[in-house]
Design goal:
about 0% strand; 11 helices; single chain; 2 strands; mainly alpha; disordered N terminus; about 375 residues
Length: about 375
């Protein structure tokens, strides 16, 4: 994303999505919510496609990353609430059709919904790709998530200087989600009330995804499944699965992992059809009914999260619990044969309007 020599300074700033107003900051933080959420459906598909009793290490990786993506969603909501915004999750924007690019990115790749596979891992590595050390901040049409958050960090700093921190952090502190007993992943929830806490929240998101300081594989946390180990960032957790080996102390991004082997069985996976869609099946058929039920449940979860982030933080435990109630619905879909006889169904993650979510299941 290097502008040509003839590009004006104004055009360059615009193309990079620089943030110069408080309303622009709120808009970008809503985009951050869309970005953090967009990773959840593909990670869930990979996780739920793994057959019971197999690929234990891969399940640990996907579970840990999904919990941390929920943390990132919460942190993005805290950031938006801190500047007087209103987080929106129960919208069609949250569930655009897959495959799709990362929201507001440079569209350099698309994210499909895939079963756990080498192809899925390649997509996940693209999502979590660390930013280059010299990569520019990019608030729009970004290449990496780290560059997107760097633009938001710059926006926070510059607006705090020009408007004053008190005027930037004008949101209701009661909307901030605090550390919660239901959260069991690495890192911690940061209540955002000033510039320092805003920067800390964004550092938590970026370091968990790509590692610390553009140079380390570690994210600064302890492995939640193995407390005796330090935890690597999302990008490097996926790399361990791809390369079949764990990182150990002394390893770097350049060296790759040199620790214990990681076992992956690509055959112990349900053959979910890529990018499931409910309209691939006739109305009233078992697969379509099951997909529609899942979609209603998922959209009700988005609605619950929107309520949590808009003044009902005490409901966060119910929201975390809602993520787990979807598991049986998704795993049931993974065992339902498609009409082709070769693949199984899967969750389609399609938006359902609120007035259609109470449709009675036919007897």
């Amino acid at each position: 994303m290097k502008p040509s020599d003839s590009t004006s300074a104004t055009e360059t700033a615009s193309s990079a999505g620089s943030i110069t107003t408080l309303e622009g900051l709120r808009e970008h933080l809503q985009w951050a919510l869309e970005l953090e959420h967009s990773t959840i459906p593909p990670y869930l598909c990979a996780l739920y496609s793994i057959k019971a009793g197999h690929n234990t290490e891969a399940i640990e990786v996907l579970n840990s990353i999904l919990v941390e993506e929920m943390l990132h969603l919460t942190l993005a909501a805290n950031l938006l609430n801190s500047v007087g915004g209103q987080p929106r999750l129960d919208t069609p924007q949250m569930l655009q059709t897959y495959p799709r690019p990362l929201p507001h990115s440079a569209d350099s790749f698309e994210i499909p919904l895939l079963r756990f596979s080498p192809e899925a891992l390649e997509t996940f590595l693209k999502i979590e790709q660390p930013s280059p050390k010299t990569g520019p901040a990019e608030g729009n049409h970004y290449e990496t998530i780290g560059q997107f958050y760097e633009a938001i960090q710059q926006g926070f700093r510059e607006l705090s200087t020009s408007l004053g921190e008190r005027n930037v952090f004008c949101g209701d502190p009661a909307r901030q989600i605090m550390n919660h007993p239901f959260y069991s992943g690495g890192g911690s929830i940061v209540a955002v009330t000033d510039l320092a806490s805003a920067l800390a929240a964004m550092a938590e998101i970026v370091e968990q995804g790509e590692g610390a300081g553009h140079a380390q594989v570690w994210d600064g946390d302890t492995d939640v499944f193995h407390p005796d180990r330090d935890q690597v960032a999302h990008y490097y957790r996926f790399s361990e699965l791809k390369l079949g080996r764990r990182y150990q102390r002394g390893d770097t991004p350049r060296s790759g992992p040199t620790g214990d082997p990681v076992a992956v069985d690509w055959n112990a996976v349900h053959p979910m059809r890529a990018n499931p869609r409910s309209d691939d099946h006739l109305a009233g058929t078992p697969v379509r009914l099951a997909q529609e039920e899942f979609n209603r449940s998922y959209c009700m979860l988005l609605r619950l999260l929107e309520q949590v982030f808009n003044g009902a933080p005490q409901m966060l435990g119910s929201a975390f619990g809602g993520m787990y109630t979807l598991k049986s619905q998704a795993q049931n879909l993974m065992q339902m044969a498609n009409e082709d006889g070769d693949t199984t169904a899967g969750p389609s993650f399609e938006y359902v309007a609120s007035e259609l979510r109470t449709v009675a299941h036919p007897q």
